[in-house]
Every structure is written in C-alpha cells, then in structure tokens.
Specification:
S1_domain, 289 residues, 5-stranded mixed barrel, 4 helices, alpha+beta, OB fold (Dihydrolipoamide Acetyltransferase, E2P), 16% helix
Length: 289
C-alpha cells in the first residue's frame, strides 16, 4: 500500500533507529514512526497500520494512534479553539489539532462553533499538503440518517446543528434523525455544532422532522403576558400600545409578533388586569398588584 497523507496505511517496518522506526510502502517510500507515536512495540518486517500526516514542522510522520476521521471517512469531533478569522480547530485524536477553514464555515461569524461544540467532518489537504477538516455536506449527513417514527410527534428532540441557513437550522440527533427548524420557530439562531433541544411539531412522510425551539403556545402566552404586564407597571400602569398598534411598533418594543401580543393582551383583559381606551392600555385600578 502506498503512503498517503490523511489516511490509514498498512506499511512494513524497514529499519530501526534510536528514536523510532522507518516504515516503507511497496514502492520503497519511507516515513518515520517515532517512539512517542507507537502504541506497541514493533520489529523489522512487521506490518503496521499507521496514520500519515505532516507534523508542526511540515515533516511527513506516522502514528499508530489512529484518529477518529480520515480522508473519505467522516466522524464526530470536538471543537477545541477558534483561530481568529481563519476558522476553528478540532481534535481528531492526534497530538496536533486540525483546522476547519473559514471556507467551510457559515458566512455569519456569530454562528461559528465554539469550544465544546461538535462537528461531523472528514479530512482534506491544502495546497501545501497540510490536513484540514471539512464539514459534511447535506448528502453525507443524509447517508447516515434514519427514518424517524411517527411517535416522535410532540416529543422532545435533542440534536446537533450540522448546517446553518437563513431559512432555518438543520439538526441531526444521536439516533440519526434529521430535523429542520424554520427561522420562525426559533428566537435566536444556534451555532454550527451546538447541541440544542426542541419539540417535534411534524413528522414528514420521508421520516424527517420539523422541530420548534419555541415553547407551546399556552406557555409562551403566559410569558408574553407577564412581560407586557411588567412593562405596564414600570410605566406607572399605562402604555401607548394596544391591539391596534402596528406590528413594527410591537416588534421594536416587545420583540413579539402582533399575533402573540394580541393573545397576551386578551389573556390580561380576560383576567381583569388591564383595559384599553383611547389608544392606551392601562392597568385596572381595582387590581391588587
């Protein structure tokens, strides 16, 4: 087998030196396996499975500590650090961390992965032969996905973000279930590689899921009503916002849709806490605050 950077190769021990052994392929090309990179003792003429890469000095080197991923083989790896505007580093199981280039990350830096997040990656080489990690495409993720059962409807979903788009967030669970969160079903956009939790709101015929990060409408209405009522109290019991206010004004002040705002006002009025008159919403005087 030939020596190839970024892959596990089966090579034979050609000769020993004080600091390790030199391995050769069937064409006579050699690579050093340092003593520090051995997981067991080896002898001349032994066949050894090693991973080949360039070390920090750019020298070809081999290790018996086989990484989680290689060229053409994908796996989950941990993000360990950010590298400025150039990308993020991931730990693939070697002494040397590997860069995920900004070319393989979302256009919006705000959703780049952070230390502790996980990415599904493979390896590739740059023009100088250095290894880079590349994030799996939609087709690759689809190849490992499983069809979700109908019983998932309305159940909790825990998954990892594998793709960030303006239209929404793409997730895959540890079980292999794929899910999509439309931008209208989230209050903020999670990071690539972030582990998140939501609720299944649809199980599609192809076995993929639609998930929401928003609380159930009843719970959200309670939270929205509390927010509006607190705002009223802070303003001395009145505000120039009613169910006739524009969606833009409501969004700017409360970060709520007009529909959510009207539902919350309706609840407060039903409970006898507020009233609307002359373009104002007021706390009722007979309410014990």
């Amino acid at each position: 087998m030939m020596i190839e950077i970024g892959k596990v190769c089966t090579l034979f021990v050609a000769r020993e030196v004080d600091f390790g052994v030199f391995l050769e392929d069937d064409r006579g090309e050699s690579v050093l396996l340092h003593n520090n990179e051995m997981t067991e003792e080896v002898f001349v003429d032994d066949e050894v499975d090693v991973f080949v890469y360039l070390d920090k000095e750019g020298r070809l080197t081999a290790t018996m500590k086989l990484p989680k991923v290689q060229k053409g083989r994908y796996g989950w790896v941990d993000v360990v650090a950010e590298h400025g505007e150039h990308g993020v580093f991931v730990n693939i199981g070697l002494l040397k961390d590997v860069l995920v280039s900004n070319d393989d990350l979302p256009a919006w830096h705000s959703v780049w992965p952070e230390a502790g997040d996980r990415l599904f990656v493979s390896l590739k080489e740059d023009q100088m032969g250095r290894l880079l990690a590349k994030v799996a495409t939609e087709n690759i993720v689809a190849s490992i996905a499983r069809k979700a059962p109908k019983s998932m409807y309305n159940q909790k979903f825990v998954g990892t973000v594998y793709r960030c788009q303006k239209v929404g967030t793409y997730l895959i669970s540890d079980e292999g279930y794929k899910a999509f969160v439309h931008y209208s079903e989230r209050q903020e956009e999670p990071r690539l590689g972030q582990k998140v939790e939501g609720r299944v709101i649809d199980v599609k015929d192809d076995g993929t899921l639609n998930v929401s990060f928003l609380p159930r409408k009843e719970v959200k209405m309670d939270d929205d009503a509390e927010q509006i009522y607190s705002y009223l109290l802070q303003r001395g019991g009145q505000m120039p916002y009613t169910d006739k206010s524009t969606p833009e004004d409501i969004q700017d002040r409360f970060q709520l849709s007009k529909a959510s705002f009207k539902r919350a006002l309706g609840r407060l009025m039903k409970e006898g806490k507020i009233e609307q008159k002359d373009g104002w919403t007021r706390v009722k005087e007979n309410v014990n605050n």
